[in-house]
Amino acid sequence: MIKKYWFFYFLLLLLLTIADRCSKLFALKAFVVPYKVNNFLSFELAFNRGISWGLFGSGSDILFAVVNLVIILFLIFFIIYMKQRYEDKRSIFAELLVMCGALSNVCDRFYYHGVIDFIVLSLHSWSWPVFNLADVFIVIGIGIMFIRGYKI
Fold it and tell me: Catalytic pick from 20, 88, 108, 117?
């Protein structure tokens, strides 16, 4: 019975959110100057005011507010969706990963006026956009949801 797992879900949400928050606080202190681990992994502090990969990001406070509003509206609908899944006694593990990452990134938006990103993957001339642990949680959660066959 899925309903008995509410404590597990709450604990997972709490632990993953704390891990992301701590990693971002560490990044704020440690990666003011970029740090290259090897040819593939480096750390560089960035503040993303847009959505994924900096889309819709700008210096405009109005656009930033609109992006934040859209994200918050999405989260409200996503919480309703999660609640319904939970009440239907279905696993919300993947949804919880998405929610954890999204909530942590929203905290950044209000406290730092942009999402703290710091992980950089690159190989030769190719480079992935800067990201954080919350982004990893979101991607894994959405990936699991797609694998399970959900339509988002």
Answer: 117
Do 39 and 123 contact (CB within 8 A), yes or no?
yes
> In the sheet that 115-123 helps form, which strands lie side by side, from edge to edge?
35-36, 41-48, 115-123, 126-127
Strand partners, 131: 119
Q: What is the pLDDT of residues 81-104, one digit of tens each?
A: 999 999 898 889 999 999 999 999
Please tell me the pTM assigned to this model.
0.89
Known active-site residue 117:
yes
Active-site residue, selected from the candidate residues 20, 61, 88, 135: 135
Cβ contact 101:87 at 8 Å: no
Instruction: State the pairing for strand pair 41-48/35-36.
Output: antiparallel
Residue 4 identity: K
Annotation marks residue 108 as catalytic: no
114: alpha, beta or left? (left if phi > 0; alpha if psi -120 to 50): left
